Amino acid sequence: MTDDYASRVRESRAEKDEFFDEHPQSPIPPERRDDFDGLAYFDPDPDSRVSATVTVHEDPEPIELETTAGPNVRYLRVVTFAFELNGADLTLAAYRQEGDEDAALFIPFRDKTTGQETYHNGRYIELEPEEDLADGDEVTIDFNLAYNPFCAYTETFSCPLPPEENWLEIAVYAGERTPPW
C-alpha cells in the first residue's frame, strides 16, 4: 500500500468524522456530539485489500436478512466473492435489495473482532463495480473501508444483520472499530 493510498483513506475518514460531528443527519445523538472526537479506526493495512474472484448468481436467490429493530429485509444474493485473507480461503456473499439493480453491492459481515474490537452486530462494505460482473472477474475488496452501520450509534436506525454465510472465522483488523463510547 502506498503512502498515497493510506493518506486517501485517512482523508476520507476525516471527512466522515466531520459529517458525524456536524451534519444534522448524523447518527451521533446530539447529546454526544460535544464529546465526539471522531470514530475509532484500525490503521490502514495493505494486507486487508484483497483480490476476490467473482461468481455471479444468474438467478439470484432471495434471502431474508434480520434487522436490529424491526421486520426482516428481503435481499437478493447476486454474487459470491472468493478470496484469501490472513492465510485463510474465504467467501463473502454480496446482496442487493429486490428491484434496485443499480445499487452498490452490499456486503455485511462479521469476523472474530465482532463484539470485541468492532461493533457487536457486524460491519458493512459496499462495492460499486464500474461494469457488470461476470464469473471469474477479479475485484478488490478493501476491508480498510469496512464501516459500522448507523444503528451502532443510535437505536433510531434499523440495520440488516450479516447472515451466517458471511461470518468469517478470522479476525479482520481493518476499517472502523467499536464506536468510541
UniProtKB/TrEMBL annotation:
Residues 1-36 have a biased composition (Basic and acidic residues). InterPro entries: DUF1684. Transmembrane segments: none annotated. It comes from Halopenitus malekzadehii. It comes from the Archaea. Pfam families: DUF1684. This is DUF1684 domain-containing protein. Residues 1-37 are annotated as: Disordered.
